[in-house]
């Protein structure tokens, strides 16, 4: 076998192995996306329970006291951007940081970045950020990361009278730029909760201010869990799409290598046949020359 054929076979074997790895990565990403989507129901159920409790407390609170928990709009601003911990997600992080840059240009504030890949890209883009943390690598780790983000956020404005907190994250869907969500966490919107007009008033064992503050902080934490879980599902959906594109590229390359192998092999066979034909034609002439006296 010629060196050219050996080289093509080696490259074909490497491409075949790469295609198997890509297929495994695509399967893992698809499974993680499904797991994240399944966990969203539990997070939202917990948020609904906390929201119901907030409504019950608001029913027992004078409106003026409840309004004190909503900071004014002209407050210090924190922008949390949820990126990825791992790569192979196409332009996922680029779109999120581009949105953050536009928001920061419109209204300055401190940027928090979730995800190592987002932090690296922010440094490349010279986007200043005040705090960062690694993104969850598995769905069950999302609640831990959300707790770290919540602690960092509350630590930033615990000594201030007011603050604004915005969350920027992706949601699963076909077009990434249309799936980026910007939601406000603080000032807290109490008007979204249904205040019961009937029924027995709740028995409160804590001061109203402390109870309502604790419930709102819990609700913000659950909103962070929801946003991070949606982003984790979107990240893995983007990875599935990237792996599909890579798989198509590898398959195209395998087809090209197979075509090259056949061409080179056919050229070698043709050369061998021509050599055999030339050898066969020369043999009778040599025999005849040897038979002459």
Characterise this structure.
With 293 residues, the chain is an alpha/beta fold. The chain has a single domain, classed as Pyruvate Kinase, Chain: A, domain 1 (3-Layer(aba) Sandwich), CATH 3.40.1380.10. 64% of the residues lie in helices and 10% in strands. It contains 6 helices and 5 strands; from the N terminus they run H-H-E-H-E-H-E-H-E-E-H. It has helices at 3-60, 63-67, 92-106, 116-124, 142-157, 208-291, and strands spanning 77-82, 110-114, 131-133, 164-170, 180-186. A 5-stranded mixed sheet has the order 3-2-1-4-5, sandwiched between helices. Helix 3 links the parallel strand 1 (77-82) and strand 2 (110-114). Helix 1 runs antiparallel to helix 6 and helix 5 (142-157) crosses helix 6. The longest helix is centred in the C-terminal third of the chain and has 84 residues, at 208-291. It is elongated and about 110 Å long. The mean pLDDT is 85.
Give me a quick take on this structure.
The protein is an alpha/beta fold.
Architecture blueprint of SSEs:
Blueprint lengths: L2 H58 L2 H5 L9 E6 L9 H15 L3 E5 L1 H9 L6 E3 L8 H16 L6 E7 L9 E7 L21 H84 L2
Parallel strand pairs: 1-2, 1-4, 2-3
Antiparallel strand pairs: 4-5
Helix pairs in contact: 1-6, 5-6
Helix content: 55-70%
What's the helix-strand series? HHEHEHEHEEH
Rough shape? elongated
CATH topology grouping? Pyruvate Kinase, Chain: A, domain 1
Terminal Cα separation, in Å? 44 Å
What are the low-pLDDT stretches, counting only 5+ consecutive residues below 50?
A: none
Characterize the quaternary organization of these chains.
single chain
How many whole angstroms does the radius of gyration measure?
32 Å
Keywords: ATP synthesis, CF(1), Hydrogen ion transport, Ion transport, Membrane, Transport
InterPro entries: ATP_synth_F1_ATPase_gsu, ATP_synth_F1_gsu
Subcellular location: Membrane
Membrane topology: Peripheral membrane protein
């Amino acid at each position: 076998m010629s060196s050219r054929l050996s080289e093509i076979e080696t490259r074909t074997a490497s491409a075949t192995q790469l295609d198997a790895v890509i297929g495994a990565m695509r399967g893992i990403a698809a499974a993680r996306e499904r797991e994240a989507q399944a966990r969203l129901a539990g997070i939202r159920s917990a948020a609904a329970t906390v929201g119901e409790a907030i409504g019950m407390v608001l029913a027992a609170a004078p409106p003026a006291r409840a309004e004190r928990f909503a900071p004014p709009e002209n407050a210090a601003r924190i922008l949390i951007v949820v990126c990825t911990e791992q790569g192979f997600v196409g332009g996922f992080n680029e779109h999120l940081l581009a949105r953050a840059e536009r928001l920061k240009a419109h209204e300055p504030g401190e940027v928090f970045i979730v995800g190592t890949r987002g932090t690296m890209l922010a440094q490349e883009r010279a986007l200043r950020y005040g705090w960062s943390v690694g993104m969850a690598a598995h769905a069950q780790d999302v609640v831990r990361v959300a707790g770290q983000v919540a602690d960092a956020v509350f630590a930033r404005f615990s000594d201030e009278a007011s603050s604004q907190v915005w969350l920027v994250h992706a949601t699963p869907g076909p077009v990434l730029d249309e799936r980026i969500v910007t939601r406000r966490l603080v000032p807290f919107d109490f008007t979204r909760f249904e205040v019961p007009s009937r029924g027995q008033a709740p028995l409160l064992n804590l001061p109203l201010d402390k109870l309502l503050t604790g419930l709102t902080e819990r609700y913000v934490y659950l909103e962070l869990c929801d946003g991070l879980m949606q982003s984790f599902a979107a990240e893995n959906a983007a990875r599935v799409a990237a792996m599909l594109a890579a798989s198509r590229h590898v398959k195209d390359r395998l087809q090209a290598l197979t075509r090259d192998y056949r061409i080179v092999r056919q050229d070698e066979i043709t050369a061998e046949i021509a050599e055999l034909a030339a050898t066969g034609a020369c043999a009778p002439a040599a025999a005849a020359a040897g038979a002459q006296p």
